[in-house]
Amino acid sequence: MSVQERKERERASRERLIVATARELAEQQGWDAVTTRRLAERIEYSQPVLYSHFRGKREIIGAVALEGAAEMAGALRAATSTSATATATATATDEPRARVVALARAYLDFAADNPAVYDAMFQLDGGLAFAQEDTPEPLKDAFAALLETLGEVAGDDVHPALFTELFWASLHGLATLTRAGRLPPEDSERRVELLVDRLAVV
Known about the structure:
Elements: H1 3-29, H2 36-43, H3 47-51, H4 57-86, H5 94-113, H6 115-122, H7 137-150, H8 160-179, H9 188-199
């Protein structure tokens, strides 16, 4: 390994450490607790080293958001793939519905299990462009993971991407209202069923 390759590997390792530490601290204490000073202390590097990777907290939030988007896309695809396998013997009508229900549950579970990451993705300013030409690939892929399943149930007269946006907005509303304690938790499963049955053409 050349000296340059070793330096690049060390740099990538430090960057992963910074992002993982920011994420851990945010999940434990909230994003207000994430400062460059505290991160530098936790990773045992100086603040100038941290700034050589990220210009500030906004870029760190963006990095966490991109990592979270990749993880969410994986979780959504895994849920719908597992659902498709489990419903292989189901009727043609049941199978799309089961995949949409699995997708909705996986989305809401991801939001509940990773609140700081979810905030980085959708609530905080991470300097990332959404729904534009320069939208980063992990964000595009997370939307694609939704579209792959939801596009099937949009209906004949509705553009699949537009339907996916509407369904995603509904899931986001459920996720944020539930987390804020605005919705009774005992009805969470019924909400998913209603959302699928009222919006999706299955």
